[in-house]
């Protein structure tokens, strides 16, 4: 038996699988995010440990006989968070999360430093770990002076479980300290961010073993002695393992809180200027690229909140695919990553009319999100990624209308997986299987069964192409107003 433990922003998910990767039981525990100032986003790592303990103990209560046979645990987690420890391994301050934008000035300065983009393969975004430490040096010098180790969120859980400070390549690629092409810490990047190599965890492949679980922790969780903890991966890399996206041509679109289009790559093909993320995959000798928008279903959730109407009710009012709405929504409620790298821009409605009703606003919001994802697709194509279809995952895919709309806007067939586990927790469990047994990832990380494929609507494809052109022209105009 094997466990995948996925640390998300809103909660922890623990998944128990057999050695073939079949899901047997799962348990979840929620998390809260603190926003002490505008643009700030933090969590207490102690809450991660408490939530993980709760989820794993709940899993043990559901399947005690199977949990007694667990051999390995793999990790997945939200990326980019900066968890700082002192020389005794104690947490110095709350973790600054991926969606925190306070370090935008430090990110811009680091992004302009010589060799940084070339070595890291990426623009330096404010959400990355390196500018956060630069912000600490400027604004919290007493804390910065005590930093002995910097750990990413899931790696703090690994530290709790094993006592060893380790990270994997896929998560570390989002720090701006890793040479992403060479798959190792870069002295030049560390120096540019005023950091030292001894402050970094050991970096290994996602399929490698960190070490055995501490005996006291295993006893507390109801697990046998000798369970091996496997490094795992950042959430999107782990999700790619969960859906079998390992090779050129494999990819998925995720309609979650944020929106992602991910393309697996056999080689290293960065294009930092496009604001495409180019990261190491969680399996050896592979990479992946993704375009990221910060508010996907979050945009619909925002509309639901201000209208007092649940998201499913909003989208449920849309049945057959309509021509593009007269109103246009620019989905930059939290700024934007791909392709703009703009933490300051904000969202807008354009073209509202006295006749605009709730259904049209809903339509405009999900069209705006879909156009934003097409921005990411076009940026990925600019790097040479060749995607002929995409797996569609995430909560937004519960709306049939949105899936058909997105297929039409992207001009690609979207495959809907059959019911079952296929996310980051499954990817983490699959990484554990490979790490403990030595199994080939290509064999373990199979693609899910497809329930249905949604093709672009041929009657409306041209109209949505034209609407996308109008959408692209709106960002410069909006930016000029701010």
TrEMBL record:
Binding sites annotated in the UniProt record for substrate: 79-80
Keyword ATP-binding: yes
Carbohydrate kinase FGGY C-terminal domain residues: 252-433
One Gene Ontology MF term: D-xylulokinase activity
Location of the active site: 235 (proton acceptor)
Residues the record marks as site: Important for activity: 6
Protein name: Xylulose kinase
Gene encoding the protein: xylB
């Amino acid at each position: 038996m094997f466990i995948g433990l996925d640390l998300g922003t809103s909660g922890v998910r623990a998944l128990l699988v057999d050695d073939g990767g079949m899901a047997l039981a799962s348990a979840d525990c929620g998390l809260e995010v603190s926003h002490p100032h505008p643009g700030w986003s933090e969590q207490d790592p102690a809450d991660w440990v408490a939530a993980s303990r709760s989820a794993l103990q709940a899993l043990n209560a559901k399947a005690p006989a199977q949990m007694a046979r667990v051999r390995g645990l793999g990790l997945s987690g939200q990326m980019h968070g900066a968890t700082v420890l002192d020389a005794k391994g104690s947490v110095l301050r709350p973790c600054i999360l991926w969606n925190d934008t306070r370090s935008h000035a430090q990110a811009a300065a680091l992004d302009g430093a010589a060799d940084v983009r070339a070595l890291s393969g990426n623009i330096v975004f404010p959400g990355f770990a390196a500018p956060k430490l630069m912000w600490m040096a400027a604004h919290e010098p007493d804390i910065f002076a005590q930093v002995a180790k910097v750990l990413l969120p899931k790696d703090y859980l690994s530290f709790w479980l094993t006592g060893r400070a380790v990270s994997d390549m896929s998560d570390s690629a989002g720090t701006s300290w890793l040479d992403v092409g060479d798959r190792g810490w870069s002295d030049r990047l560390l120096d540019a961010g005023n950091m030292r190599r001894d402050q970094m965890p050991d970096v290994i492949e996602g399929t490698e073993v960190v070490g055995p679980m501490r005996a006291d922790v295993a006893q507390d969780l109801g697990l046998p002695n000798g369970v091996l903890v496997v490094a795992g991966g950042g959430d999107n890399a782990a999700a790619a393992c969960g859906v079998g996206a390992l090779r050129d041509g494999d990819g998925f679109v995720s309609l979650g809180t944020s929106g992602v289009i991910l393309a697996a790559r056999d080689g290293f093909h960065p294009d930092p200027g496009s604001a495409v993320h180019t990261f190491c995959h969680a399996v050896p000798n592979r990479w992946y690229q993704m375009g990221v928008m910060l508010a996907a279903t979050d945009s619909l959730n925002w509309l639901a909140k201000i209208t007092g109407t649940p998201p499913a009710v909003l989208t449920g009012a849309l049945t057959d695919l309509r021509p593009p709405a007269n109103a246009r929504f620019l989905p930059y409620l939290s700024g934007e990553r791909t392709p703009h790298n703009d933490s300051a821009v904000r969202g807008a409605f354009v073209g509202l009319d006295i006749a605009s009703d709730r259904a049209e606003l809903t339509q405009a919001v999900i069209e705006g999100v879909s156009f934003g994802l097409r921005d990411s697709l076009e940026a990925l194509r600019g790097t040479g990624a060749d995607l002929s279809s995409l797996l569609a995952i995430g909560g937004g895919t519960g709306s049939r209308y949105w899936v058909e709309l997105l297929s039409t806007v992207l001009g690609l067939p979207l495959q809907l997986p059959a019911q079952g586990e296929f996310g980051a927790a499954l990817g983490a469990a699959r990484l554990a299987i490979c790490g403990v047994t030595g199994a080939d990832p290509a064999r373990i990380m199979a693609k899910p069964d497809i329930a249905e494929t949604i093709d672009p609507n041929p009657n409306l494809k041209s109209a949505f192409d034209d609407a996308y052109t109008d959408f692209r022209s709106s960002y410069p105009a909006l930016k000029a107003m701010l």
